[in-house]
Design brief:
membrane, 40% helix, 3-stranded antiparallel β-sheet, globular, lipoprotein, signal, Extracellular solute-binding protein
Length: 514
């Protein structure tokens, strides 16, 4: 491995039975054919003559764009690489399926995971191949790792090995932002709030105009504190402070308390729903679409989700991008960094085709592989006009494109050109993607933990999280006075918060040394 790579710094289905997996443990060779494949000796993607072959794969099928073996994406992959995938799908949760599959010892060649910790766990048990052992036979991946060291490092295990192929690009779909009803703000003569004080004032005026509304609404309760915390200069859990160069626990900090003070005030004055802690997606969508909520935090794609559906009956409806409001003087105007995706293929050590699979996967880290995974084939699924790619068929949205083509569905990408998705977005959403990076927090390190550390985090960490959430909920709804904050802090420290922070620090330092 070269010096650059060595020095890198740092959902969901299964109940798959043993018999369902039993038939996918062997690889298949087919007749020799002139099929293209990525070259192992050069970063150029011009393929050589290869043996047409099939790899057995445990994959995931997203309910919104389910796996379809007849999708053109799979045909284009086979045309370019000479590889076809014999896909097995879980009948329940993917992580459960992986557990059953690994325990059986009857493994397919490749397995999809959506949890890097599982890759580390099974890899260290000896079930998965260390991809770095083959890095010098994968010129495209090697070059990619040098270009994206953080994304590469986030797939490294605590033992310095890589058991899951990294990905980059498609994580943009997980970007979360503030959004507001621009049409209602204009109607009421309100400006886009730049601080939480201005946000409070705007919410109050909206409440006066719409008494039955809860102007600020969001789903998944306390999970959204992840999105609020950066604008208060803190984190919603253990986080790395890049300025102080240290690991900290946000929910005990004074800055975090200031955020809770605002939310408590919002709750008491009916500016957020009384049942915000249990608000699910359906309730939130109902509020946002019926003049009962006007400001929210969620995935950036929700701009088109709401606007496209609601403008049919409400032509002026305009959910627009909103910059992150500042929590207090001197705090940053930042959103949490959420635009990453822990998903990738793993290779079983029992596979008879390890080197062939490495060559196959290496193709996806080339420019040609990225284009195929993102757009398909020129003249077939996309065309280029004035130097810009665009899909040939007119799709209603990204989900429609995924369902009809299979492009950007699970198992078809590693390195992704997000412009493919943006090309199907409205002007409002494209503008939001231009503005959003201005409010990005720095991507948090995601340290790789040892088995002992993961067990400690699971036991002590879960206890701490439950006690934290219980108390933060009470502070917000007024069941516990904020005057008790110092007692809450001392109680949390007694549960071992500092030990949890120390686990993160040790794991991070260990990675830096590697």
């Amino acid at each position: 491995m070269n010096k650059t790579v060595r020095g890198l710094s740092i959902c969901l289905a299964l109940g798959l039975s043993m018999t369902a997996i039993a038939g996918c443990s062997t690889s298949t060779n087919e007749t020799s054919t002139a099929a293209p494949s990525a070259s192992a000796g050069t970063t150029a993607s011009a393929p050589a003559q290869v043996v047409k072959q099939t790899f057995n794969v445990l994959n995931y099928s997203n309910p919104s764009w389910p796996y379809n073996k007849d999708n053109i994406s799979w045909k284009l992959i086979e045309e370019k690489t000479g590889v076809s995938l014999n896909v097995q799908l879980p009948s329940g949760k993917l992580d459960d399926a992986l557990s059953v599959t690994i325990a059986s010892g009857n493994l397919p060649d490749m397995m999809m995971t959506q949890d890097k910790k599982l890759a580390d766990k099974y890899g260290q048990q000896g079930a998965l191949v260390n991809i770095l052992d083959y890095i010098n036979e994968m010129p495209n991946l090697k070059k990619w790792m040098e270009k994206y060291p953080v994304d590469a490092q986030n797939t490294i295990s605590s033992d310095g090995k890589m058991y899951m192929f990294p990905n980059a690009g498609i994580g943009e779909t997980n970007r979360m932002i503030w959004m507001y009803r621009d049409d209602i703000f204009k109607k009421l003569g309100l400006s886009e709030p730049k601080t939480w004080d201005e946000l409070y004032t705007a919410l109050k005026k909206i409440k006066e105009a719409y008494p039955k509304s809860y102007p600020l609404s969001f789903r998944n309760g306390l999970q959204r504190l992840l999105n609020f915390a950066p604008a208060f200069g803190t984190g919603s859990d253990v986080y790395y402070d890049f300025d102080k160069k240290e690991w900290r626990y946000g929910p005990l900090e004074d800055n975090y308390k200031q955020m809770i003070v605002y939310l408590n005030k919002f709750y008491k004055e009916g500016l957020i729903p009384p049942d915000f802690l249990s608000a699910d997606t359906k309730l939130w969508q109902d509020l946002m679409s019926t003049e009962r909520a006007f400001v929210t935090v969620d995935y950036i794609g929700r701009i088109d989700f709401f606007n496209s559906a609601l403008r049919k009956d409400k032509p002026d409806f305009n959910l627009a991008f909103m910059g992150a409001p500042i929590g207090f003087a001197g705090a940053p105007a930042k959103n949490a960094y959420t635009q990453y995706l822990d998903e990738g293929f793993m290779i079983a050590t029992t596979s008879k085709k390890i080197k062939e699979i490495m060559k196959f996967m290496d193709f996806f880290y080339s420019e040609e592989g990225k284009t195929l995974a993102s757009w398909g084939k020129e003249g077939v699924t996309y065309k280029t006009e004035n130097g810009k790619k665009q899909f040939i068929e007119k799709y209603a949205d990204v989900a429609d494109m995924r369902k009809k083509t299979g492009i950007s569905t699970d198992g078809t990408y590693a390195w992704f050109d997000y412009d493919a998705h943006l090309s199907l977005s409205s002007p409002e959403l494209q503008k939001a993607y231009q503005e959003a990076p201005k409010y990005d927090s720095q991507q948090q390190p995601r340290p790789a933990f040892t088995s002992a550390e993961m067990e400690n985090l699971s036991l002590s960490g879960d206890t701490i999280m439950k006690k934290r959430d219980e108390n933060i909920s009470k502070f917000i709804v007024g069941e516990r006075s904020l005057e008790d904050w110092p007692k809450y802090v001392s109680d949390m420290k007694a549960l071992g918060v500092d030990k949890i922070v120390d686990i993160y620090k040790k794991a991070y330092d260990r990675a830096l040394k590697k």
